[in-house]
Amino acid sequence: MVAKYGYLPILIITLIITILVSLSLGSQYIPISELWQDQLGQFRQIVLSIRFPRIINAVTVGALLSMAGLMIQNLVKNPLADPYILGLSGASASVQLVIIASGLVLPFWLFMLAGFLAAIFSLLLLILLSSKKSLNTSHLLLSGVVIAFAYGAIISLVLTLSPLSTTKPMLFWLMGDLSYSQLAVFPIVLLIIGMLWAQKYHKELDLLARGDFFAQKCGVNVKKINFILLITTSVFTAIAVSMAGTIGFVGLVVPHISRLLVGNVHAKLIPLSALLGAIVLLIADTFARTIVAPIQLPVGIFTAIFGVPVFLLLLRKRA
């Protein structure tokens, strides 16, 4: 089955099993069999209003981050690149931390929209700074790193001046927080559209992965594809950060694991990365909300616990 269909069926089955297990685990254990036999609605509120939206958000954010990591590594030709390297996450986090520090209680969609618009504004600023007549990936990367440092300073300032009562929620958000349990449909729609858009150019992405010069010699419009990669990466990163804060290692490690499984064949890489990222983040979030329940931990702790040894192992295999 693996030879004919690749790893996709295995990952789809794994994702379904992980969702079912995650639905049953939490501060109150609910047997999987009870999920289908809850005639009196005893667990309906817990499952449908709290756990299910959080699981969908975890799946969506995990897929977005892994896809963004795949795109940005192809764009800048740097295996150490992750979705946050362009500084968009800093823009989103800065605005959202200011909202948290001010004590404003906004609807989740409005809180998410504020972070998303900040990231898009940062993208426009990045394009303005890094390009004159054409999009230069070296200038793009350098400008992104500098902008990220600037946002890091703003975040440090906000943390320093904020009241102690808001410090913990702000730290949680910086380390990744999926405790907001409102179902957001718009990110799912954009994820599907972005994946289909990237899939349309999978042959060009295969060539571009071997270098801009090689791709250009093969007839690829490198400027156009690079711009598509930049926009896709930026939108995916902006949505993910605005939904769950800055979750590390998913966008860095998952694309490497996917390439290890199927090589640089983007027709398989794109769906594989999305599924694997969704599974990794969902498992990490399940640990974050159950390991010391009812206390919830930042999900970024568990993605780092997973990401660091896996990345070191991948480096050793490549060496």
Structure overview:
It is a single chain. With 319 residues, this protein is mostly helical. The chain contains 15 helices and no strands. It has helices at residues 2-5, 8-24, 32-37, 44-76, 88-102, 108-130, 137-161, 167-175, 185-200, 202-208, 212-217, 222-244, 250-262, 266-290, 299-318. The chain is globular, with a radius of gyration of 20 Å.
List keywords for this structure.
single chain; 319 residues; mainly alpha; ABC transporter involved in vitamin B12 uptake, BtuC; 76% helix; globular
Mean pLDDT: 85
Low-confidence stretches: none
Tally of helical runs: 15
Architecture, CATH level 2?
Orthogonal Bundle
In CATH, what is the homologous superfamily?
ABC transporter involved in vitamin B12 uptake, BtuC
Radius of gyration over alpha carbons? 20 Å
Content of β-strand: under 5%
Largest sheet: none
Q: What general form does the structure show? A: globular
Q: Helix/strand/pairing class, anyone?
A: mainly alpha
Strand segment tally: 0
CATH hierarchy class name: Mainly Alpha
Give the % helix. Answer: over 70%
Number of separate domains: 1
CATH topology name: ABC transporter involved in vitamin B12 uptake, BtuC
Please specify the SSE layout and strand pairing.
Elements (H helix, E strand, L loop, with lengths): L1 H4 L2 H17 L7 H6 L6 H33 L11 H15 L5 H23 L6 H25 L5 H9 L9 H16 L1 H7 L3 H6 L4 H23 L5 H13 L3 H25 L8 H20 L1
Give the structure's gist in a few sentences.
Helices cover 76% and strands 0% of the residues. It has 319 residues and is mainly α. The radius of gyration is 20 Å and the shape is globular.
